[in-house]
Amino acid sequence: MKKFLSIIGTVVLSTVILTSCGGDEKKETSEVTIKPKSTSIKGDLGAYFEVIDKDYVLKVEEGSFSGGAIISVEVKRTDKDFDFPTDNINPFGTNGGEDYHVGFGIELLGESGPVTVKQATEGGMGGPYSSEDVTGLMKLKKGETGYIRWSVDKLDGLKSFQLSSALQKEERPESSSSGDDAAGDCEQFCSDYEAFADDYVAFMKKYKANPTDPSMMSEYSEMMSKAADMQESSKSCTADAKVAGRISKAVAKIANAAL
């Protein structure tokens, strides 16, 4: 759940406010073609997956609201059996009493090194475009291929990319007498987050109707203050499966409002 909140203070909102409120100029169409630096995937899952070696086109259309592109990488399942159980496993950024967390990351490279690095342990806006992409790869049979996507904000200077991976065994917390209080706190946090999602949707409607309104900056500051409070509250709810579904719906509502 810690990573759910990364959606609040990152590209979707800050780019809209800080770069768009000052004028009506549209971004020019941008396109770049890159190849994998290696078909090997770094990290814990490198023995089980490999990247398909081909050209990958990233394109931003003129007038795109998000201001970014999507890279969709084709990944193949190798012939090696998994050395860990996969019946109770979830992507990083999601919580539901899993035994393992799993994830993929990407390094977008220029002439002199990394331009953007998205870690394999990241979820939310810092991770893949959708956690379902990670789930889909873990369900591939030997020899099958699937796709995993990331949002890319900067295309200038990109030449290649490298995938990484991570697998983390989770320790189950022991039950305690304070369990009921913790559950109540998580329920309250979930309600607060849902309220924030509603505020965000209303904010985006106002922005789209009048993107040059200077009052947007004031509302942006208020939303960031709320985000900081919720970040602190989320620490005690990282393993609460009961609120995960509600939080996921709130995250989806925020993401859809930015489209």
Secondary structure tally: strands: 10
The assigned structural class equals: alpha/beta
The CA-CA distance between the termini, in Å, is 23 Å
Low-confidence stretches: 1-24
| SS field, number of helical segments | 5
Count of distinct structural domains: 2
Averaged pLDDT: 79
* C-alpha-based Rg, rounded: 20 Å
Shape: flat
Most strands sheet = 7 strands, mixed
Strand/helix succession: HEEEEEEEEHEEHHH
Could you describe the 3D structure shown?
With 259 residues, the chain is α/β, with parallel strands linked by helices. It has two domains: 26-169, no CATH class; 179-257. The protein has five helices and ten strands. It has helices spanning 11-20, 131-138, 179-209, 215-233, 241-257, and strands spanning 30-36, 42-43, 49-51, 56-60, 69-77, 89-91, 100-109, 114-118, 145-152, 160-169. The strands form two sheets. Strands 1, 2, 4, 6, 7, 8 and 10 form a seven-stranded mixed sheet that branches. The chain has a three-stranded antiparallel sheet with strand order 3-5-9. Strand 7 (100-109) and strand 8 form a beta hairpin. Helix 3 runs antiparallel to helix 4 (215-233). The longest helix has 31 residues, at 179-209. The chain is flat. The model is unreliable at 1-24 (pLDDT under 50).
